[in-house]
Amino acid sequence: MIRYILLSSFISLSFALSYPELNSAWRTYKKVYGKSYNPMEDASRRIIWENNVARILKHNLEADLKLHSFKMEINHLTDKVPQEYFMMNGLRMTNRTNSSTYFLAPSNVEFPTQKDWRKEGLVTEVKNQKNCGSCWAFSVTGSLEGQHKKKSGKLVSLSEQNLVDCSENFGYAGGTMDVAFDYIKLHGIDTEESYPYLSKKQHWCYFKKEKVGATLTGYVDIPTGNEKELFKAVATVGPVSVGINAKGYGFMHYGSGIYEVDECDPRNISHAVLLVGYGSENGKDYWIVKNSWGPNWGENGYIRMARNKNNMCGIASMASYPLFKSSEKFLFFC
């Protein structure tokens, strides 16, 4: 599939001319991101990269003129075409399972105007799903890591590969958070250290019960599309797994600022991420979102997305979090 995409791109761009003055920049880009291509693919990638760089520069000039609320930047995706990038958006929209309960906000609580669970130690380092549609697994481990830390006092990195190989999802080809939560409820989930990420689905499930780092008793679904209830959950519970439309303008090359775009259909959910907080800047409300594309993407692996903008990009359309189960056995392996 990728070869077909590259060949199509090469043919369609074959008459485009590369800029010799960018030779050094292209070599530096490949060195920084560890990329190496054969001569034919190098030419195709070079043209894709130059076109994307031109779009980034144009957007940032417009941002300087206050036409956009965020900046773009060159990253490890800049030499890719959108179809390749879309393969990383592995969240599948399905009906919610019967295993969940619905969120009931606590009463008589004054919700803080800003919240960042990173500051309270509930969030592990930014991870990288690489060229794999396993975003749903990273979203699930992120929310459970937060609940585990909140209840046990220990922050443990949990295994996405365990979920890719073993849960009743589609592995690297996609999945949903609730199905993964159901799997963990039955079996638990191994630690990242004992079951490391390989960015591909293996033929066998290598789950080991003695290596379990956390489990759960159930999970809670936030009412679909309700940003107010999502706000209350993030304010009081901890990091929340959410789905978003990651195919909106500029998302692939987001660099900094508050991501707010006109066309980002909240019904077209495609990518799973982790909501770790919220805040406001210069009168603009935003969500703090942890992505799984490595720390070199966005704001050190994070994006601030517009909040209270009619559920922009569907951030409240598919939100849930686990109910943590604590036992001496699981704490022993932390």
From TrEMBL:
<dbReference type="GO" id="GO:0005768">
    <property type="term" value="C:endosome"/>
</dbReference>
<dbReference type="Pfam" id="PF00112">
    <property type="entry name" value="Peptidase_C1"/>
</dbReference>
<keyword id="KW-0788">Thiol protease</keyword>
<feature type="signal peptide">
    <location>
        <begin position="1"/>
        <end position="16"/>
    </location>
</feature>
<dbReference type="InterPro" id="IPR000668">
    <property type="entry name" value="Peptidase_C1A_C"/>
</dbReference>
<feature type="domain" description="Cathepsin propeptide inhibitor">
    <location>
        <begin position="26"/>
        <end position="85"/>
    </location>
</feature>
<comment type="similarity">
    <text>Belongs to the peptidase C1 family.</text>
</comment>
<dbReference type="InterPro" id="IPR000169">
    <property type="entry name" value="Pept_cys_AS"/>
</dbReference>
<dbReference type="InterPro" id="IPR025660">
    <property type="entry name" value="Pept_his_AS"/>
</dbReference>
<feature type="domain" description="Peptidase C1A papain C-terminal">
    <location>
        <begin position="111"/>
        <end position="323"/>
    </location>
</feature>
<protein>
    <submittedName>
        <fullName>Cathepsin K</fullName>
    </submittedName>
</protein>
<dbReference type="Pfam" id="PF08246">
    <property type="entry name" value="Inhibitor_I29"/>
</dbReference>
<dbReference type="GO" id="GO:0005767">
    <property type="term" value="C:secondary lysosome"/>
</dbReference>
<keyword id="KW-0732">Signal</keyword>
<dbReference type="InterPro" id="IPR038765">
    <property type="entry name" value="Papain-like_cys_pep_sf"/>
</dbReference>
<dbReference type="InterPro" id="IPR039417">
    <property type="entry name" value="Peptidase_C1A_papain-like"/>
</dbReference>
<dbReference type="InterPro" id="IPR013128">
    <property type="entry name" value="Peptidase_C1A"/>
</dbReference>
<keyword id="KW-1015">Disulfide bond</keyword>
<dbReference type="GO" id="GO:0006508">
    <property type="term" value="P:proteolysis"/>
</dbReference>
<keyword id="KW-0865">Zymogen</keyword>
<dbReference type="InterPro" id="IPR013201">
    <property type="entry name" value="Prot_inhib_I29"/>
</dbReference>
<dbReference type="GO" id="GO:0008234">
    <property type="term" value="F:cysteine-type peptidase activity"/>
</dbReference>
<dbReference type="InterPro" id="IPR025661">
    <property type="entry name" value="Pept_asp_AS"/>
</dbReference>
<keyword id="KW-0645">Protease</keyword>
<keyword id="KW-0378">Hydrolase</keyword>
